Amino acid sequence: MSSQVLYRKWRPQIFADIVGQNHVIDTLRQQVRLNRVAHAYMFSGPRGTGKTTAARILSKALNCSGQIDGEPDNICGACSNINSGRSMDIIEMDAASNRGIDEIRHIRDKVHFSPTESKFKVYIVDEAHMLTEAASNAFLKTLEEPPPHVIFVLCTTESHKILPTIVSRCQRFNFRKLPTNVIIGRLQFLCAKETIETSPKVLEYLAKTSNGSLRDAENLLEQLTVSFGANPSIQQVHDLLGIEYSVEANQIVAKMLTGHTAEALSAVGRAFYNGADMRLVHRNVVNILRNVLMIWSGAEEVLEIEQEELLSLHKMAKAVSPTHLMNCIKAMSQPEIKTDEISALPLELAIITATLESPIVTTNLITPSDNKNVGERPTQHLQDKISNTHKTFEVPDDESLNSEKSSFTEKQIPTAVWDNIVQVLRRHKGKRFFLGALLRDCKLPFFDDNTIMFPFSHRSNLERMETELDDISNQEAVDNAIKEFLGSNHPIKLILQEDPSNSGQSASTTSPLVRAIRNMGGRILEERKFNE
Predict the structure, then answer these.
(1) Domain ranges of the chain
(2) Statement: the pTM of the whole predicted model exceeds 0.85
(3) Strand 90-94 vs strand 121-126: parallel, antiparallel, or unpaired?
(4) What are the phi and psi torsion angles at 62 (to 5°)?
(5) Closest to 348 in 3D by CA, of 337, 359, 357
(6) CA nearest 128: which of 101, 104, 94?
(7) Would residue 298 be called left, alpha or beta, if left means φ above 0 and alpha means ψ between -120 and 50 degrees?
(8) For the packed helices 214-228 and 234-241, what is the interaxial angle rounded to 10 degrees?
(9) How far is C-alpha 292 from the chain's CA centre?
(10) What DSSP string describes 64-81?
């Protein structure tokens, strides 16, 4: 095997060799063929997807004297000089290390000189988002009206950091992450060229680990062959790349989603004790949570996973409430976890935070059904549960009812469902109050025909909620929360159900301080009487 690294040795030399980016390559080839090339391009996308390679091939195709259907022939003098890095007319600049205004002024001073030996002078600016604001502003005029013999290609992984005025002066092409099957195909090509013999399982794991970056996958393949020779086994992949940490990540997610916090922390501890890169563990956990979310939403067709793993994820999706799942994802998205490769503490704190943020609901009542469409809400199952809780009670006298007693047939919402609705609304701020805080004063709601009755214990909270619901955004927030957990829309009605047994004697109803605390989301854990 050559000492040259694989991704450089087998770097594509014509447009047709670039894989997974046909939407870009076909357009560039057509522009070269028709001689309708733009004066400035911006290639954006994740690392290792072919941006700089495409820029180099474009520079060759533009200057090739033997161009074939928009492709460089790689034989002529211009192509040979570019391939060997000897061309004076192809200037590559790394904006990460040459990001100041002086470097841009140097380009601006040299840009008017004619090409030495080629038709076009091409400037390839890597990591263009790293240019300072002053350098970017100095670059604008040259980029907008360059000499006819100059073409700029800006390559970036973070296009949102580039000035909009620069973006507007470029033709933009977005490079995508490569699908797993495309990366596997390219790795098979490299194995054939380098006489590497390995199993499809090894290549599949390398492709998945690379997260859509072909260059990362090629580097992993080379790392394997350097360490274990030209016939690496799946066990050697496990040893070198730490596939066991993926197993630990599955255990962490499974225990975290079902509320077994201690067991989830134990799984983190095992990975940490075994010397795992905690960033890798974190990335695996986030990927699994994302897969669970896709399955819960009924979008599993976007996942590239095996059937055995898919069944495991289905079990996780059926055992978790959407609120807890979202809280787990939010907790795992904290930036300090992404940058800490040594300490397990950020990951452990995220697990505990996710558990504290939402009540753990282990019932399947509000989780996807067993239908093929996993994302379908179990509306009928929910209604069956509700219909089993019929009872009749008498509503206390109310002036609005002219002191007439009325009775309703109650179909109570399960406590777990109501807790989740309140949990979702507890951070929704109305005009003056948080909706969830007001709803904590509401006894367990019930159905009257298709209407959900919200029985409040205190008239003041009922009136506050009425005022908040006059705002359309607050009304929509409540409607959306109800639909999320019940699977369908229902009109709501606020009613007053004061508890006559309290008769004003409890501090929980008479104390202004206690009422204020309850309105802010607090609740009474214990009430005691003390002798004066």
Answers:
(1) 6-174, 180-241, 244-366, 383-519
(2) no
(3) parallel
(4) -70, -30
(5) 337
(6) 94
(7) left
(8) 110
(9) 12
(10) -TT-BTTB--S-SHHHHH
Do 6-174 and 244-366 have matching folds? no
The residues near 22 (Cβ < 8 Å, ≥ 6 apart) are none
Q: How far is CA 427 from CA 369, 422, 529, in A?
A: 28, 9, 33
Which residues face 40 on adjacent strands? 152
Note the pLDDT tens digit of each residue in 290-341.
Answer: 889 988 888 877 777 777 778 888 888 888 888 888 889 988 887 566 665 5
Domain 180-241 has CATH 1.10.8.60: yes
**Domain 6-174 is of which CATH architecture?**
3-Layer(aba) Sandwich (3.40)
* Higher-pLDDT residue of 43, 385: 43
Burial 158-180 (b: 16+ CB within 10 A, else e): ebeebeeebbebbeebebebbeb
- The percent of residues in the chain predicted with pLDDT above 70, rounded, is 79
Residue 317 and residue 305 in contact, taking contact as beta carbons nearer than 8 Å: no
Residue 154 has pLDDT above 90, yes or no: yes
What are the residues whose beta carbons fall under 8 Å from the beta carbon of 8, sequence distance 6 or more? Answer: none
Does residue 210 come out as left (phi exceeding 0), alpha (psi in the -120 to 50 range) or beta? alpha
Smallest CA-to-CA distance from 125 within 139, 137, 113, 141 is with 139
SS3 497: coil
Residue showing tokens 């005691």: 528
Instruction: Compute the distance between CA of residue 435 and CA of residue 38 in angstroms, rounded to an integer.
Output: 55
- Phi, psi dihedral angles at 229 (to 5 degrees): 90, -170
Identify any residues that bridge with 411 across adjacent strands, giving them in sequence order.
390, 447
Q: Tell me: domain 244-366, CATH 1.20.1050.10, correct?
A: no
Of 440, 438, 441, 443, nearest to 453 by C-alpha is 443
C-alpha 426/C-alpha 429 separation (Å) is 8
Residue labelled with tokens 């002053």:
134
How crowded is residue 182: how many other Cβ atoms within 10 Å of its Cβ? 16
